[in-house]
């Protein structure tokens, strides 16, 4: 489910794995830790423990150092591989601290020498858990900050994108509901985030929910929360996403998939500015700004009685339509530069560039998956390219052959009106030039790409005055 909320989730019960070849020790530890409400699993055979750790990636491992079959160091390595944040505490039974020190060097958080006292044990484990939790939070915080600073800018300087950016700039500071339309991958969610970021609610939460990805039966309580005992399994009160978005922005993605009953409830939120939790009687005031997105034609959904007209009119106050990428090819180079830099950082290949022929090929493709498809493509090419340059050969072949004629001023336009034969020649010439370019000048490849025999290809080139670009 695509659902994000910028709040903190309550800490879950820590899962601890204990490894000690002495069964008695395992039993004692299990009792002590269970009494502290840890979720504890014990193993007296280290190899079994390692298999379990690999499968379940626990939060903390407490392991004996010297055991038959495998050592504490083996357990430590398995734990770190399974979960880089896993806390590891080792126990040494020999009164010596060498083993412990070695383990600390290898990344254990702490060590205990047997015999330990219970409060010493509990304190050591709590500290190790806290340290690993801190590392995890720091990492996810810096990840979030990085994403926020680099991910929420809608790039593009084409005329249709300028209109979009201008509309966002104007509507963001108002509290008006906004409906964002556009094909898949055109940047609807990014636009919704941009509206939030530029609004007076920027310090509040941006809560996103994808209406299509949650089963209808769960969606109501996801959105509106529930009271304890509202239904079987509702063992405590839960706040819904609408309530969590209080003071911020609620983003309903794929609103066209929202069931009719919930459409009525969302309409009520917009009109009355209040909600009721499932199973509750109290009305709770909420102050949210609604941004919705759809790639479905809502007018048609209204005709099919699948979408409420009154909700549509409420939402449709301001509509932003994100143009498909093929209608704004001028934006492709700047997007490529942006994704190259991003993928370069991610894949540790920061210097990757793209040669003009490859850029040209990418600019001619029609991108049914829009910006997301371009983003994935660049990432793939950064991974696959040898050295620091993406060449034409690195552009997937199916994409090169699926190139569409570019209707921008950079290409010769066919003058109108013209004789059929001249127009055909002009088209053929243009076409063959592209095929040869896509084949990197290799005529066998050009013949294969175009489905024209090599001999026929040479004849055509001769007639149209095209010279091979490289000796064959
Ligand atoms: N104008 C843009 N500038 C920079 N990045 C963009 C732009 N548009 C889209 N992207 C990137 O493309 C990807 C897809 O964008 P997003 O998820 O916003 O699209 P979407 O319209 O919500 O897609 P879907 O309909 O599939 O949910 C994201 O990684 C986003 O960062
Ligand atoms: Mg989306």
Give structural notes.
With 472 residues, the protein is α/β, with parallel strands linked by helices. The chain folds into 4 domains: 3-141, Rossmann fold (3-Layer(aba) Sandwich), CATH 3.40.50; 159-323, 3-Layer(aba) Sandwich (Rossmann fold), CATH 3.40.50.300; 326-401, Helicase, Ruva Protein, domain 3 (Orthogonal Bundle), CATH 1.10.8.60; 420-464, Orthogonal Bundle (Arc Repressor Mutant, subunit A). It contains 19 helices and 17 strands. The strands form 5 sheets. A 6-stranded mixed β-sheet has the order 1-8-11-14-7-15. Helix 4 (98-105) links the parallel strand 5 and strand 6. Helix 13 (332-346) packs across helix 15 (370-384). The two termini are 54 Å apart.
